[in-house]
Amino acid sequence: MQPIHDLIIIGGGPIGLACGIEAGKAGLNYLILEKGALCNSIYNYPVNMTFFSTSDRLEMGGIPFMSVGTKPTRTEALEYYRRIYFLFKLRVNLYEGVQSLKNEGDLFYVKTSKGSYQCRKIVLATGFYDLPNLMNVPGEDLPKVLHYYKEPWPFIGQKVMVVGGANSAVDAALECWRKGAEVSMVLLGDEVDENVKYWVRPDIMNRIKEGSIKAFTRSKVQEIRPQEVVISTQDGEVTIPNDWVLAMTGYKPNFALLDQLGVKLSLDEKRQPCYDQTNQESNVPGVYLAGVVCGGLNTREFFIENSISHAEAIVKDILAKKS
Predict the structure, then answer these.
(1) In the chain, which residues have pLDDT < 50?
(2) Which of 134, 164, 174, 299 is most buried, by the most CB atoms less than 10 A from its CB?
(3) What residues have CB less than 8 Å from 198, skipping those under 6 apart?
């Protein structure tokens, strides 16, 4: 028979690992469940991505995060969190996705792709990078449409349309253009997002201004076809020859897990989960939220650097209610 865990943490990203560190220090019998690789979201970031935060603000467990530059790269972050994993001997089950959650009485029951578990408390630290926001247009299911971008090499000499104007879209557009792709961008507004990394934004603005990258402003994708894309612009419908569509349209939390546990969401467009900001406990006793999942669809409020503290607050509350 499976032991009853004090705490199960769903999500093996930086915030999930931080929760594991604090749980271990407190002597709790915990388990972290991660459906992919360690820090799976960071692994799926573009290969050449640089963080906006400085390395010292991403540190946890009192372990220094050393990077070559002021702002760490994806590879440096993966190496840092690998060291954290081994140093603290964190109990993480990798490649084990959670399929269902339910609570009965004082216990929670967790069913995964590999087994079943029982626990007294749950932390949802699932982030938001696993589920892309779909455009919901004809042809979005074609193989040429990608919602994740890794590196520019497959797009040399190709006609690439980048949908979106935030950091991921801008990085993809610039990298592909510099490797010889013919790049166009589809932007909802008049220009790229004003929150694009400050050292990158002038670059993309200049490439658009000089015409190296064609930007369709106040525009939306209407239909994707095997060899072209139809977009609606402020000047009417335009059809563009195309080989690839990089739909950098953002991502969303796994609301299904929240729903299964009965966590309430706000009724506005943010769909923000209900939780106590002093201890991170949701409206469901024993269910805690940590990291980006706290923002619902507002994914620009929570980051690694301002969510690490969630771990300490959660474990402190668990211990207080245990005594």
Answers:
(1) none
(2) 164
(3) none
